[in-house]
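WARN no homologs supplied; continuing
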Amino acid sequence: ATCTCIEGYEGDPFSSCRLRPKPIEPVVADDPCDPNPCGPNSLPPRDVGGRCQCTCMREMIGSPPNCRPECVINSDCPSDKACINRKCQDPCPGLCGQNAYCRVRNHIPICVCNQGYEGDPFSQCRRITTTS
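OK structure emitted
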């Protein structure tokens, strides 16, 4: 005679049969944000209702996955602006001295004494005095 464990049991039928353990299914968390689809210069992704939501970091332009600074070098900006702290800005404020004005040419600020004045436009221009 042959001995076998009944269906659903396992072991040595001559000594003991025990209930076969149910296989444990691996838990697969389907994370829409893994791998991160947001790209560089973006905030950490958020799972919103099973969809991955990406946002550019503050100060960045574009939209994920193409978030980027406004500029990296001066030529990324219009010629009357300069790339300062990754933004196209007027390079003039606070640059010129008294009685002088600033103009920007090809991203470079240039200080010039006001009409009728002379001196160092970066520090101070004085009224031209004519002695006759």
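The longest strand covers residues 100-105.
OK
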